[in-house]
Amino acid sequence: MAMVPAIAIAIAIFYFSSQPAVQSTATSDGVTRLLLAIADRLHLLELQSVDVPAVCAFLSMPVRKCAHITEYTVFCLSLIFGLRAWGLRGKQLLRAALALTFFYACTDEFHQLFVTGRAGRFSDVLIDSSGAALIRVLAPMFWRHGNESGQPNRPVQT
Q1: CB-CB contact of 64 with 27 (8 Å)
Q2: What letters, b where the CB count within 10 A reaches 16 and e where it falls short, cover 86-96?
Q3: 143 beta partners
Q4: Most exposed among 68, 71, 75, 154, judged by the fewest C-beta atoms under 10 Å?
Q5: pLDDT in tens, 124-135
Q6: 125: Cβ–Cβ under 8 A, 6 or more apart, which residues?
Q7: CA 99 to CA 133: how far, in whole Å?
Q8: Contact at 8 Å (CB) between 56 and 151?
Q9: CA pair distance 58, 54, nearest whole angstrom
Q10: Where is the VanZ-like domain (predicted)?
Q11: How many Å separate Cα 100 from the centre of its chain?
């Protein structure tokens, strides 16, 4: 049961990756429009003075890449949760989660070779895996020095 969240996220990633490029772009534009509407409501910009289609076109790639980094970071975290239930700890846990995230990103890019208007690129694998790599680097900072059990640091009681 511990791997259910990771499987659910993998299915969601596969679903979004199965969208043809036109549909994927429309989704990205919808997210950008939502962010612009939020900025307008917070009075960070005046939406009436913004060329929304131009902003959507300009932000399309950054929004997409940030979404990929975020979904694969969450995927990696869900793998860490599942793999801990299977007994993995410490560096072994982090390496396994990173390797599985990287492997899934590779299979996702291969899958996109068969989706209309999409392409499989190794650079996208690296972008997708960057959040997992960041977790791999930063997680030990939150664990006790030399703690191979993978338990988070507890605040020191004074």
Answers
A1: no
A2: eebebeebbee
A3: 152
A4: 154
A5: 999 999 999 999
A6: 102, 105, 106, 108, 109
A7: 9
A8: no
A9: 6
A10: 5-141
A11: 13
Tokens standing for residue 113: 């070779």
* Termini Cα distance of the chain: 39
**Cα–Cα distance, 50 to 84 (Å, whole number):** 48
Q: In sequence order, which ranges of 113-143 are alpha helices (DSSP H)?
A: 122-138
pLDDT at 145: 52
Beta bridge partners of 152: 143
Q: Can you give the residue ranges of every domain in the chain?
A: 4-142
Q: What span, in angstroms and rounded, lies between the C-alpha atoms of 100 and 106?
A: 10
- Cβ atoms 72, 128 nearer than 8 A: yes
pLDDT single digits (tens) 56-102: 889 888 988 999 999 999 999 999 999 999 999 999 999 999 999 99
For the whole model, what pTM was predicted?
0.82
Cβ–Cβ under 8 Å, residues 115 and 19: yes
